[in-house]
Design goal:
This protein is of the alpha+beta class. It has 2 domains: 264 residues, Helix Hairpins (Orthogonal Bundle), CATH 1.10.287; 120 residues, Glucose Permease (Domain IIA), CATH 2.70.70.10. Helices cover 60% and strands 13% of the residues. Strands 1, 4, 6, 7, 8, 10, 12 and 13 form an 8-stranded antiparallel β-sheet that branches. The two termini are 58 Å apart. About 7% of the residues have low confidence.
Length: 462
């Protein structure tokens, strides 16, 4: 059983992707900010890994169930295969015994036939010898006394000799006749026996050939059954190994899911605590700002009461403030500049690169040297010169903390110079001055907002 695009390969791909993403806080820009990974970004990656790990666990579980089903099906076939192999082996043994019996019967029949043939030759030889002896005896009698028993007797000198010669001649003839008849009978019996034995040998020869054919068939059947049994046993072994391997993979996936879930839970607690601290900090800042505003209002009121009234026609006009106050805003962020907006977030035809591309921020057409304000209280992540920011020129990046459940950062680009370069800044604090450093066609501030490292339209935060 096999698992397609193995889970190990998918895990390696995802691990490499996660590692690449974790190297950069802000995706899709020419500069990676030099800062420790944000917990919110880490949690997003961990949650994605957790989702992938759960998918791997589901896939492994499905493959394990399929492997167990195949193993059960194979084991269900094994008893029949083993029984068939045993039956085929018994049939082969029986056929071998029958073949051996047929061979023995054939050999016995042949031996008996050979024995009968030898006896037939011996009997035939005796008959021939007896016939020659009778013929010689008869010729002798004829030459001596003429033919017949009477001629033998007539030549006797006395009656007693006559009688003796008659009896002897008659006995000799009877004996010879009896011997010839017996030999002829024996020869006929031997011929008949030889015929029967030859027929038996032919029969046993046919039986031997038949049993040999059956033995060959039984051997082939036994070999086939053994091969099938061995194949099923080998398949069972392979499937057991695959099931064990998948079971181990499932345990690894479960441990990985549990580990990633623990990491996600830990990061959730960190983010919750971070959000709580941010809320406390924001409340304290808001309270301090309100107190400051009340003090400033009281001071203005006292100044107004202590200053004599002037004739409007004779009042002098104050020159414009070179550092006007930061723009006010009721949004999560305030505008970073008092200058008018010259370009919004979205696709535009780039004036330098002459191509359509995403304008990832908002441009404020301020004069060079005009102040740039922090959009909200936060910590400066970096304040880098043009050589290390690509086309952004002098750049400040501020971590604004967790806002609306997202990790928010703001960037201030093409600055002429820095007012601050590190530490914590307050909402509305001057952090730098409008310039035209980097890839810029004129004095302006390029302002970006990034949620979890991804640029978004600043208008959603202002």
């Amino acid at each position: 059983m096999q698992r397609p695009t193995p889970p190990q390969a998918r895990r390696r791909t995802r691990a490499l992707t996660g590692a690449a993403l974790s190297l950069c806080l802000l995706a899709g820009v020419g500069h990676a900010f030099a800062a420790t990974p944000d917990p919110q970004t880490q949690k997003g990656q961990v949650d994605q890994d957790l989702k992938d790990a759960r998918g791997d666990l589901r896939e492994t579980s499905k493959e394990l169930v399929a492997a167990y089903d195949k193993l059960a099906a194979t084991r269900k076939k094994l008893p029949g295969a083993r029984s068939a192999a045993a039956a085929a082996e018994r049939a082969e043994t029986t056929a071998k015994g029958e073949y051996d019996d047929a061979v023995a019967a054939y050999d016995l029949a042949k031996a008996n036939e050979d024995k009968a043939e030898k006896q037939l030759k011996t009997t035939s030889s005796k008959i021939t010898t007896s016939r020659r002896a009778v013929a010689g005896f008869a010729g002798q009698l004829y030459q001596q006394q003429g033919m017949g028993t009477l001629a033998v007797a007539v030549g006797s000198e006395t009656p007693a000799a006559f009688i003796d010669r008659m009896i002897m001649a008659q006995s000799a003839g009877d004996t010879q006749t009896s011997a010839l008849e017996e030999l002829s009978t024996s020869r006929a019996n031997l011929v008949s026996t030889g015929d029967r034995l030859e027929a038996l040998r032919e029969k046993t020869s046919t039986a031997k050939a038949t049993k040999q054919t059956k033995l060959a068939e039984a051997t082939r059947a036994s070999t086939k059954a053994d091969t099938k049994k061995a194949a099923l046993e080998s398949l069972e072994s392979d499937q057991k190994s695959q099931s064990a391997k998948l079971s181990r993979e499932k345990q690894k996936d479960k441990k990985r899911v549990a580990s990633l879930q623990a990491q996600s839970d830990k990061l959730t607690k960190i983010l919750q605590e971070r959000a709580r601290k941010a809320r406390v900090r924001e409340a304290a800042i808001k309270k301090a700002r309100e107190a400051q505003e009340r003090r400033e209002a009281d001071a203005r009121a006292r100044a107004a009461r202590s200053t004599p009234s002037r004739n409007p026609s004779t009042a002098s006009v104050s020159p414009p403030d070179p550092n006007p106050p930061a723009p006010s805003s009721s949004g999560v962020l305030q505008a970073p500049s008092n200058a008018p907006v010259s370009s919004e977030f979205g696709l535009r035809f780039h004036p330098i690169y002459r191509t359509w591309r995403l304008h990832a921020g908002r441009d404020y057409a301020g004069n060079c040297g005009s102040p740039v304000y922090a959009a909200d209280s936060g910590t400066i992540i970096s304040a880098l010169p043009p050589g290390s920011t690509g086309g952004y020129g002098n750049q400040i990046v501020i971590d604004q903390g967790v806002k609306r459940g997202s990790s928010l950062a703001t960037t201030y680009n093409h600055l002429q110079s820095f007012a601050v370069r590190s530490g914590r800044v307050s909402r509305g604090q001057v952090i730098g001055y409008v310039g035209t450093t980097g890839n810029s066609t004129g004095c302006h501030l390029h302002f970006e907002t990034r949620e979890n490292g991804t640029p978004v339209d600043p208008r959603g935060w202002l």
